[in-house]
Amino acid sequence: MSEPLHTALVLASHGVPALPLRAGKVPFGNCRRCADNACGGRPNMKTPGPCTCSNPCHGWAAATTDPGVINSPTWARAWREAAAVAYHPGGARLTVVDLDNAKAIAWARASLPATRSVRTTRGEHWLYGGAMQSANAVRPGVDIKSTMAYARWLGPGTGTITALPDVVRALAVKEPTAVRPTAITVPARAIGGECRHRTPTYLDRGIAMAEQRITAASSAVHSTVYRTFLAVLSTHGRCGCLTDAHIARLFTAAQAKGESARHCTDAWTNALTRLGL
């Protein structure tokens, strides 16, 4: 049994989903059944398609705690060629703050609660208990790896794992920089026209419900954001009541679920176009 295979089986026995990595910390490519992403997986291998094969073919989504899959003949070649083992932190209810250099480590020591740390080639991984949306470059030299991401296994590390703090969650929530008048304009109501939203409470309730719908999305986030924007605009977009502050709330909720500022702007623009606004 190869060392990477043994490590993966040990991780799986502790509830940590594992997968093989080839040289360069890169996951193995699509299996023959999934060639050219015929199964629906995206080329960047960050999002799985409807593939049900047992080969390690979609990056983080291939990670598993099933020893039967890890030790199966279909994975045998991958383990023979594996240079390292990775794991899916989100699948183990963990979040890794990847600190890539000494400055990033110094920032973490001054800004984040102490927790278990693991030395890496250039810096450290800080592990917190709890999953969240992954995000790259949240600060210079700092990435967050949790859901829909993988991290290289470099050992158990030292220290006690601390519960995921709000200060780490906040790192992945970017300011809604795309909320600009040129990108989010809505038609103003006709001069002298009466707004059918008789009180501000009606609009505020609608925005709050839209925020809740986006926040509650557990899958198909991009589609949910678009449909929610569409619903808000279909109800409130023609009277001129929507302000930049209202729209910023929607963009902020979407970005907290992992949507980029560009995707928010695209979804808003597409909804406007769909409604002919």
Topology (SSEs and partners):
Layout: H1 3-13, E1 18-22, E2 26-27, H2 67-70, H3 73-81, E3 84-87, E4 94-99, H4 102-111, E5 116-119, E6 124-129, E7 135-139, E8 142-145, E9 151-152, E10 162-163, H5 166-171, H6 181-184, H7 200-215, H8 221-236, H9 244-256, H10 261-275
Helix pairs in contact: 7-8, 7-9, 8-10
Q: What is the structure about, briefly put?
A:
By secondary structure, the chain is an alpha+beta fold.
For the largest beta-sheet, the strand count, sense and barrel status come to: 6 strands, mixed
Series of secondary-structure elements, N-terminal to C-terminal: HEEHHEEHEEEEEEHHHHHH
**Rg:** 22 Å
Gross morphology: globular
Oligomer state of the chains in this structure: single chain
Number of helices: 10
Residues in β-strands, percent: 5-15%
Low-confidence sequence ranges? 41-50, 176-185, 187-194
What structural category arises from helix and sheet content?
alpha+beta
From the structure above, extract its key features.
277 residues; 10 strands; four-stranded antiparallel β-sheet; alpha+beta; six-stranded mixed β-sheet
